[in-house]
Amino acid sequence: MYLEELYNKLDEINTDYSLPESWKEIHDIDENLQKYYKKAFKDILESSEDRRSHNHLSIVQLYLQHFSAYSHTGDPRFDKASLLKTIPLLKIFKQSGFNSIMLLPHFMRSERFKKGDKGSPYSVKDYYTIDPSLKDEIIPDCQTDTLFGAFIEAAHKMGIKVFIDMVPRTAARDSLWILENPEWFYWVRPENTDRLVELLKTPIKDLGPASSMSFENINTVLDNLPMHEILDIFEYAPSVSYPEKWERFKIENKDNTDFLDKLVEEFNLITPPCTSDCVNDPQPAWTDVTPLRLFQDYSHQIMDKFSDSILERPPFFIQPVLKASNFPGKVPLDDLWNKIAEIPHYYIDKYHVDGLRGDMFHALPSKLIEKMTQKIPDKKGFTLIMENLDNKAGNDLSIEHGFDYYTGNLFAVIEEGAHSMDYYLNQITGFKTAILNMPVIGDSVPILSRNREKALFQIALSAFIPNGAFGVTADTIIENKLPLNYGLGFSDQMQRDFNELLIKDDRTLSYFNYDCMNREWSKQKMELIDFFKELNSLREEIFSEDIAFKLSKINHEQHSLTWEMCSEKNSYIIHVRFEDEDQIQIDNTKIIYSLNIKQEQEIIKMKPYSIIVERIII
Q1: What's the distance, Cα to Cα, between the start and end of the chain in Å?
Q2: CB 466 within 8 A of CB 548
Q3: Residue 31: its pLDDT value, please?
Q4: Using CA of residue 76, residue 81, residue 83, residue 88, what is the dihedral sign?
Q5: Interatomic CA distance for residues 87 and 85, integer angstroms
Q6: Is 535 helix (H, G, I), strand (E, B) or coil?
Q7: CB of 196 within 8 A of CB of 272?
Q8: What is the DSSP annotation of 387-449?
Q9: Which long-range contacts link 189-193 to residues 24+ away (Cβ below 8 Å)?
Q10: Which segments of the chain have a pLDDT < 50?
């Protein structure tokens, strides 16, 4: 439906600009812009593959607002990433053997309090509106809902599933939901926002850095936070303090998406920035988002500490309130919960998306997650992914809420060597829930910024870890070596070094800025496509069987690791060398994959960062 509608609009293209050689190579066409799109879309429309036939997942994490950005003209209106430009590039993922796409947030983002020139994808202004920046100027009357629907349908035509990403613990500070019900939010005077952050970041002496809120430490936190000062900063929502004035304001601004300045001017109120749900957290406040108010009351620990009289004060948040999974109230804001719970169903019903990644779901109350998942009509055909970097917590929460995967922390562990990988293997294979074995994510250090042999070794190693999916970021496939965001694993020195490289390449952090990957797209051939195709083909072959992890053996002196996994018919032994060289004897007829090895008759020399996968028929 959407794809054919968009195809019919391609005749309206009357602009022409140069395309990178790699794009023309993908579809074997060297014609003008309209002919390029017509051929690419015709090829997609004629495809028909079953996206539900895969027994395993191979995932690309895709940032739609960045992947297809390229300096065609020097005019940002045409050079920015768009859904139209991304659709023909889906063929790269297909050629590389990936069968699933996990999107970063694709929703309407806020233009206020933004970091950089375009703001964060996690500063969501409205979950029910596709990011308007994903439109394309060459067909300006084609709306983003049509473009997004066409993107999903194109992926499905190629046998690729699409998962969306949502973070319903927070919203943009000028969320459109404010006009629907300002009591879903917290409020302060504009002049008090900085002071609130200072108070919430009060050091708690008896606790360590970035201490997660728990039943063991909540009393310590409540005793040490300056609660009276914090409570005095919060105000009632404008609809409570000025009900008649608010109704007039709401009517006057019902079609005004940029209403915040008027709201501040008329009511002298604003939504405050959010902090993390940890105390003693060194990271700065999240100035572009504000927490959603999920309950009318507070957890029993807070109520016991301050008595019921606290409900006579304006609604407030502190770290335990933000950690609503551990410290829920008793009385939910039902209309807000319904609004949140409808989001997955809306995208299933309208666009037929195949899954959901839940960002910060570890901080949501269990009953809200249940409400969301209960509205999914066909859970067997829908993939649920729990974002959690703690493997045990991710597994436990996934079991509790019926999720299929959790994100885990392979991107960090894989840099730590053989011992950490051995621990990781034995830990995650003992869990009931599968993990996303991703050696790189959008927030982590770009894997290809490392030594190339080491990077390809880490990627290949990840592909053969059992009890999980395999995945990389989309920009890794086209060999991007620069960060999208300084999120996880970046030292101060690394940030300084990357800042120099970004300036040298005329690049910026793409999470928050318009950024074009000109060098990466200008290559005539995507060299890593065959590398990923081989890995994913082998994964399809190996993990289509019912595979069980059997054992692992580590040699600390030789920095090597071996693990074995078995099915009814085959045993697979993976030999991994992290550092130094070594020689092993293996029947080369049993080797189905190798990387960075040298063979001399019956002796195989394993170089640093080498892998051998051996198959033995049982």
Answers
A1: 49
A2: yes
A3: 77
A4: positive
A5: 6
A6: helix
A7: yes
A8: --SSHHHHHHHHHHHT-SEE--SHHHHTTS-HHHHHHHHHHHTTSSSEEEE-S--TTBPPGGG
A9: 189/233, 189/235, 189/268, 189/269, 189/270, 190/264, 190/268, 190/269, 190/270, 192/233, 192/272, 193/270, 193/272, 193/273
A10: none
DSSP-derived secondary structure letter, 154: H
55-97 per-position pLDDT tens digit: 689 999 999 999 999 999 988 889 999 999 999 999 999 999 9
88: Cβ–Cβ under 8 A, 6 or more apart, which residues? 23, 26, 27, 36, 37, 40, 41, 44
User: From CA 6, how far away is CA 446, in angstroms rounded?
Assistant: 34
Sequence-separated (6 or more) residues with CB below 8 Å from residue 94: 158, 159, 160
Please report the pLDDT score of residue 197 as a whole number.
95
Give the DSSP H or E segment for 153: helix 144-157
What is the DSSP code (8-state) at residue 272? P
Other beta carbons within 10 Å of 317: 23
pLDDT at res. 264: 97
Containing 452, the helix (H) or strand (E) segment is: helix 452-463
Residue 605 backbone zone (phi > 0: left; psi -120 to 50: alpha; other: beta)? beta
The answer to whether the Cα torsion of 231, 233, 239, 241 is positive or negative is positive
Q: How far apart are CA 234 and CA 200, in angstroms?
A: 13
Residue 589 and residue 614: Cα distance in Å, rounded? Answer: 9
Q: How many CA atoms lie within 13 A of 195 on its CB side?
A: 13
What pTM did the predictor assign?
A: 0.94
Alpha carbon 360 to its chain centroid, in Å, reads 11
Q: Which residue has the tokens 């992926």?
A: 155
Q: Does residue 132 contact residue 145 with C-beta atoms inside 8 Å? A: no
Report the alpha-carbon distance of residue 148 to residue 97 in Å, rounded.
23
**Which pair of structure tokens corresponds to residue 340?**
């949140």
Of 311, 436, 412, give the one whose Cα is nearest residue 56: 436
CA distance 162 to 340: 20
Task: Please tell me the distance from the alpha carbon of residue 370 to that of residue 357, in angstroms, as a whole number.
Answer: 15
SS3 for 197? helix
Which 3 state secondary structure label does DSSP give 555? strand
C-alpha span between 603 and 347 (Å, rounded): 55
Q: What is the pLDDT of residue 52?
A: 62
Rounded to 5 degrees, what are φ and ψ at 264?
A: -60, -40
Length of the chain counted residue by residue? 618
